[in-house]
């Protein structure tokens, strides 16, 4: 039975070649938790443009194949959770200068995230990536649009064959989680944001 | 030698044709849904029991061109819906294990169709019950339909159908949260 399962898996990852394999790199939001650091007593809003949310990115997998995913859409729930851990209240903005919401929600900072990703694989036989990186940059402005700071972190994720055979997106999920936790630490440690 | 090659090929086809088990992607919260729950006012809620009622159109596992699509939550699609609500209540800051308001439900329909070559489609239906201190405040059946671009090629059609499942559940919950009587029942 184990041999049959293994053959089945190998067929799935070897025979199904020649196209960009869809995957989802959403991290497990229950793992995006804050340590004992005091949160920042400010309200924030963040803006993701609709075309960024729908943007599909294609990066290398293994065996010459590619993988495709939607980094903004996949990471957004984790991003929201991370910001909720850091700040008093988080609001999703409809535009970067959504003045009515900024005023109504007493928003101190407007955050515009930029996400860049890459992937690779040490395997020539299987397509899921074994290494993944997620670079998350937060452009932070005050409520009037004046830049306050830019913080950038890179999360890394690795997964080997025995781990990813039940979850082809594992290295991507790990990289996204690592980036969010690093960003959380960087935001909590940014003195500019506590003023 | 020729016999061995033919036998090997036959085994490959039998194994490939028997279909593999695939996992549906874990649920990803919709921020529109989270904002709806957050904007609904001052309340906390917990998520109770969700179970599945066997019947036509309520598939588990879901069949995608001979492949079995399993739920990542203990192989249960009722658990998938429960997890989805939990995630969105958590992000909205409204989930509390001590809340007197409890959302529970029964999954009635749950299927994806990737067999057609043009468009894939999915249908889901669930009965949602909201109780406050044990008293029923909401009891309705909510359904959602979702379509996506499919393909003749299974290598494209099957993963696309797999990715469509969380979108179908997001749409079900968006329909539920848009019902003002559901939001009122939470308070």
Descriptive notes:
The complex is a heterodimer of chains A (195) and B (187). By secondary structure, chain A is of the alpha/beta class. Chain A has helices spanning 2-14, 50-54, 71-86, 99-104, 161-164, 170-188; strands spanning 20-22, 40-46, 57-60, 66-69, 87-92, 107-120, 131-142, 147-158. Chain A is built from 6 helices and 8 strands. In chain A, a hairpin with a 4-residue loop joins strand 7 and strand 8. In chain A, helix 3 runs parallel beside helix 6 (170-188). In chain B, the strands form 2 sheets. In chain B, strands 2-5-6-7 form a 4-stranded mixed beta sheet. Chain B has a single domain (21-186), classed as Rossmann fold. In chain B, helix 2 packs parallel to helix 4. Chain B has 5 helices and 7 strands, in the order αβαβββαβββαα. Chain B is of the alpha/beta class and 187 residues long. The interface between A and B is medium-sized, with 28 and 26 residues.
Order of helices and strands of chain A: HEEHEEHEHEEEHH
Structural class by secondary-structure content of chain A: alpha/beta
H and E string of chain B: HEHEEEHEEEHH
* End-to-end CA span of chain A: 62 Å
CATH fold-level name of chain A: Rossmann fold
Give the averaged pLDDT of chain A, no decimals: 89
Shape verdict of chain A: elongated
The structural domain count of chain B equals: 1
| Strand residues, percent of chain B | 25-35%
Structural class of chain B: alpha/beta
**Distance, first to last CA of chain B:** 74 Å
Instruction: Return residue spans of chain A where pLDDT drops below 50 for at least 5 consecutive residues.
Output: 13-18
């Amino acid at each position: 039975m184990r041999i049959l399962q293994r053959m089945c898996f190998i067929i799935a990852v070897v025979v199904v070649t020649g196209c960009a394999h869809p995957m989802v790199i959403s991290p497990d939001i229950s793992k995006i938790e804050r340590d004992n650091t005091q949160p920042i007593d400010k309200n924030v809003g963040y803006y993701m443009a609709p075309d960024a949310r729908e943007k599909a990115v294609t990066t290398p997998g293994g065996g010459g194949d590619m993988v495709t995913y939607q980094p903004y859409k996949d990471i957004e729930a984790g991003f929201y959770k991370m910001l909720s851990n850091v700040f008093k209240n988080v609001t999703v903005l409809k535009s970067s200068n959504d003045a009515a919401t900024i005023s109504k929600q007493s928003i101190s900072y407007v955050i515009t995230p930029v996400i860049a990703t890459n992937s690779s694989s040490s395997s020539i036989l299987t397509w899921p990536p074994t290494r993944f990186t997620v670079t998350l940059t937060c452009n932070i402005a005050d409520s009037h649009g004046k830049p306050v700071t830019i913080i950038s972190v890179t999360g890394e994720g690795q997964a080997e064959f025995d781990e990813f055979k039940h979850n082809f997106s594992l290295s991507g999920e790990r990289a996204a989680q690592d980036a969010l936790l690093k960003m959380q630490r960087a935001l909590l440690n940014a003195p500019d944001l506590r003023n | 030698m020729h016999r061995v090659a033919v036998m090997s090929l036959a085994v490959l086809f039998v194994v490939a044709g028997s279909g593999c088990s695939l996992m549906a992607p874990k649920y990803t919260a919709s921020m529109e849904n989270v904002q709806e729950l957050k904007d609904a006012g001052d309340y906390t809620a917990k998520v109770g029991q969700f179970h599945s009622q066997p019947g036509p159109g309520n598939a588990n596992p879901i069949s995608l061109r001979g492949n079995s699509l399993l739920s990542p939550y203990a192989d249960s699609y009722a658990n998938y819906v429960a997890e989805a609500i939990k995630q969105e209540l958590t992000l909205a800051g409204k989930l509390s294990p001590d809340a007197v308001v409890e959302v529970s439900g029964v999954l009635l329909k749950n299927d994806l169709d990737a067999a057609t070559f043009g468009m894939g489609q999915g249908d889901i239906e669930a009965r949602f019950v909201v109780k406050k201190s044990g008293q029923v405040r909401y009891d309705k059946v909510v359904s959602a339909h979702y379509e996506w671009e499919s393909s003749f090629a299974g290598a494209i059609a099957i993963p696309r159908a797999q990715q469509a499942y969380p979108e179908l559940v997001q749409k079900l919950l968006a329909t539920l949260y848009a019902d003002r009587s559901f939001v009122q029942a939470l308070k």
